[in-house]
Amino acid sequence: MRSPLAPGIRLITSFSRDSWYRGFILLLTFLFYTAYHLSRKPISIVKSELHRNCSLVIRPAYLNITDNDTWCDWAPFDQVNYQTLFGVLDNSFLVAYAIGMFFSGIFGERLPLRYYLSFGMVMSGLFTCLFGLGYYWNIHSLGYYAFVQVMNGLMQTTGWPAVVACVGNWFGKGKRGFIMGVWNSHTSVGNILGSLIAGVFVSSEWGMSFIVPGLIIAAAGILCFIFLVEKPEDVNCSSPQHHIIQEYGETEPLLQNGNRSINGAVSTETPKIIQEHSEAISFYGALCIPGVVEFSLCLMFAKLVSYTFLYWLPLYISNVAHFQAKQAGDMSTLFDVGGIVGGIMAGLVSDFTGGRASTCCVMLIAAAPMLFLYNYIGQKSLGITIGMLLLCGGLVNGPYALITTAVSADLGTHESLRGNSRALSTVTAIIDGTGSIGAALGPLLAGLISPTGWNNVFYMLISADILACLFLTRLVFKEIKGWCGRIP
Q1: Dihedral sign, CA of 9, 10, 13, 14?
Q2: Which of 464, 343, 453 shows the shortest CA–CA distance to 407?
Q3: pLDDT tens digits, 175-227
C-alpha cells in the first residue's frame, strides 16, 4: 500500500509555482530594505558615545588631562555646540537623500532594477564602513564625516523606489495594504537590528558599529545580483492584474482597491483590463495623478516626526532617563517594535475600509496627544516608558508605512496611467522624496531646538503631526462622502 505524502511535502505542493516566486521576492526585498535601514541606524546610537558626560566616566590612570568635561569625547564633537554638529551629520545624509530621491525614480525606471539595487547596496556598504574606519584612522575632521554621510545618502536613494517597483510588479491590489503593511516592517526590523548591532560595539570600539552593518548591506547587494527577479514574466509567471478601469459615470475614484475606490464607492460594473504600456512617465505626469501631491505633503511631515525619533530618540533617552549608550539604544528599539504593529494594523484597516487617507488621518490625530504624554510622563517608570514607546511608535510609523507602501503602489498603478507599469518607480520616488525633505528638516530642527529644552522639540513634533493630518483633509472628505453614499 502506497503511503501518503508527508505533511510538509503536502504543504509545499499546495502552493503554486507563482506563489512560491511571489513569496521568494517578498522575502528577498524584505531582506534588502532591512539592510538599508540597518546601515542607517548606527549614527543615532553612536552619538551618545561621541559626546559623553566625561565627569562621570572613570579616567584611566595613564591619562594626565585637566579637562574633566571633554577628555572622553571624540573631537570635533567635544565642543559645546555638539548637538548642532550632530545635526550637520544627520542633514548631510538626509538632504542628499531627499535630493537624490527625486532622480532615483527616474533612473529606476530606465535601468535594470537588479543592477541598480546591487550597485546601491554595495556602495552604501562602502561609505558606511568608511564612517566607521574614521575611528581606526583617528580622523577628527567634521568635513570627512559629512562627506561620507552625503555620499551614503545618495547611494541609499537607490533602495526604496526600486524595491517598491519590484514588489508592485509581483503583487496586485487585492490585499495590498495588509501585504505591504507586513512587508514594510523591514523598516522597523532594520532599525532594531541596527540598534542592537551598533550597541554591541558602541562602548568599546564604535567604529565597528558602522563597519558590521556596512558589510551586511554590501553582502545583501551581492545576494540581490545573484537572485533578484524583477518581473513575473521573466520566469514565466502570471502577471497580477494591476490596471483595472471601472465605469463610474461622472464620479471618478481616486484609487482602486480591488473593486472599491479609496473614496469608498463600490462598483458593480465588470472591470475592463487594459493593455500595459512600457513608456516611462514624466515627472510632471506623475504629479498630475490624483492624490500624489496630498500624500506627498502629508508624508513630508509624518516622516519629519518619524526620522526625528530615528536619529534623536537614543540621545533623548540617555539625557532624560540617564541611561548608558547601549541601554538607551536598546530601549529605543521599542519605538520600532510599535512601528511594526502600527504598519500592519494600518494596512489591515485600510484594506477593510478602502480608506487609505482616513486611516492615516485617524492615526495622526491620535499620535499628537500621545507624543505630549510621552514627553511628560514617559520617563516616570520603566513600565510607562515601554508602553508609551510602543504606542507612539505604532501611531507615528503606521501612517508613514501605509503611505510609502500601499498608497505609493496604488498611485503608481492608478487608472489614469492607462496601464503604464513603469510609472510606479517615479511615483514612489516623488512621494518618498518629498517625505525625505521632512526627514531632513526634523533632525536639523531637533538639533537647533534641543539646547532650549526637549519640551520644545516635542511641541515641534506635535505641530508637524497636525500639519500632516491637515493635508489629507480633502481626501478624507472624499472617502467619507463615498461611504455615506453606500448607506441605504
Answers
A1: negative
A2: 343
A3: 566 677 788 788 889 988 998 899 899 888 899 999 999 999 999 999 999 99
Residues 6+ apart with CB under 8 A from 273: 241, 243, 244
Helix axes 159-170, 113-136, angle to 10 degrees: 150
Q: Give me the helices (H) in 137-207, please.
A: 142-156, 159-170, 176-183, 186-201
pTM: 0.74
In-domain check, residue 2:
no
Which helix (H) or strand (E) segment holds residue 240: the answer is none
Confidence of residue 292 (pLDDT cuts 50, 70, 90): confident
Q: Could you tell me the CATH number of the domain that includes residue 383? A: 1.20.1250.20
Q: Which three cell numbers stand for residue 298?
A: 502629508
Give me 60's grid cell: 584611566
CB 131 within 8 A of CB 217: no
Is the per-residue pLDDT at 274 higher than 50? no
Phi, psi of 253 (to 5 degrees): -70, 160
| pLDDT tens per residue across span 244-254 | 333 333 333 33
Whether the CB-CB separation of 224 and 114 falls below 8 Å is answered with: yes
The single-letter DSSP state of residue 63 is -
Distance of CA 19 to the CA centre of its chain: 26
Q: How far apart are CA 76 and CA 67, in angstroms?
A: 15
Helical H segments across 322-355, by residue range? 325-353
Has residue 255 got a pLDDT over 50? Answer: no
Let me know the angle formed at the C-alpha of 9 by 7 and 15, rounded to the nearest 5 degrees: 110
pLDDT at residue 366, rounded to an integer: 93
- Is 333 domain-assigned? yes
Within 254-403, strands assigned E span 256-257, 260-261, 272-273
d(CA 270, CA 3): 47
- From the list 422, 428, 425, the residue with the least C-alpha distance to 408 is 428
Number of domains in the chain: 1
Decide if 320 is inside a domain. Answer: yes
Domain interval for residue 211? 15-53+74-236+280-484
Work out the percent of the chain whose per-residue pLDDT is above 70.
81
C-alpha cell, 166 = 519590484
Helix (H, G, I), strand (E, B) or coil at 288: coil
Residue 101: inside a domain: yes
